[in-house]
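User: Please predict structures.

Assistant: First:
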Amino acid sequence: MVTAITNFGRSGLYDWLIQRISAVILLAYTLFIVGFIFFSKDFGYVSWSALFDQFWVRLFSLIALLSTVAHAWIGLWSVITDYLTNRMLGTKATLLRILTQTLLGAVALVYTVWGIEILWGI
């Protein structure tokens, strides 16, 4: 039996909703960045720097970063709980699942802090 202790949300519906909302945010962000690159007349460091000097772009980037982390966490949690089971791996599956989730959580935290530092220069 899989419990909701290590997933992102409180229920499957909540996780599903987070996945869908984060996917829409990531699509919008991707289209924005690709559009900026393609429609920029003089694309280079100066225009890229000027773009990210704007508060709303940094905020949009932060929202996209947090959406990426939430989306990835829910997806990886689903895969881990589906494939690292006692039925497949025996009694060591629980320990392996906890270690895997801890490692992925640590990586997500480091990337989030690093991304915030890059965006806001903290």
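Second:
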Amino acid sequence: MATVQVLMSTFNGSRFLSEQLESIYCQRGVEVRLLVRDDGSTDSTADILRCEQEQGRLEWYSGQNLKPARSFLNLLRNADEGTDLYAFSDQDDVWDDDKLLAASNAIGDEAKPALYFCQTRLVDEWLRDLPQMPISPRLTYGEALMYQFVGGCTMVFNQALRDIVNLYTPEYLRMHDLWVYDIALAVGAKVVFDPVPHIRYRQHSDNAIGQTASTLSHWRERLQRLRQREHIRLRTAQELLKGYSSLMLPENRELTEAIVGYRTSFSKKLSLLLSRRLRPANKTIAFTGKLAILLNLF
């Protein structure tokens, strides 16, 4: 039976926290150890966690408000050594009782870095089904650099990948789950996508990140990023190259170097525009990504 350490970051999550905790305790076929980091809550979240710890159901600690991405990386650094698998958890979802078992079966006894994630089942705050947004990822490094879609709340990975992630702390970090996914593909990890959802992904007004925004909202967000010239993909590539160049597959290092240098090298820009590796499953993202390269906005 695999041992899975679940890593949860909380922030003012008392409204749904107890329900999510129960769904984690009810996981079957694996041994669960739950570690929670509270990111500076001002509601009764800490009281709930304190009570659960007194009952021996979890361990928790608190710290200054780091926001979700860095709070989860802090958890990853403080996770137990020697655990078979690690899983990220949001504070407000509800897991099916086979969520971690499905991941454990998919990863198996893989010795090299390995990562699992699955489809989500979108629900509202009362757990009523919402229109679904299925994904069909290619699971390629080039796609990951173009299109961010993986849900951290579904991710499970082994110690080999956790140790690699912990080698470097990026200065620029958009979200922890995208970062871990990019690293996994960059170094040639075994990556498994399960099209069967094993989680009810709750959408509500307090979500840090959600999936139910309209198409118009998504486009407004993209345009806002362009106006701000945040260069998400370029800055992520720079961090990946800085932290993991020596561990990357040669072809992935070459692609990353081209992205890092495309704004000052016409040959690198042309290679990216013509590259078949920068081809996500989503055709709209494929088009806008190449347009961003052309306009130096990637």
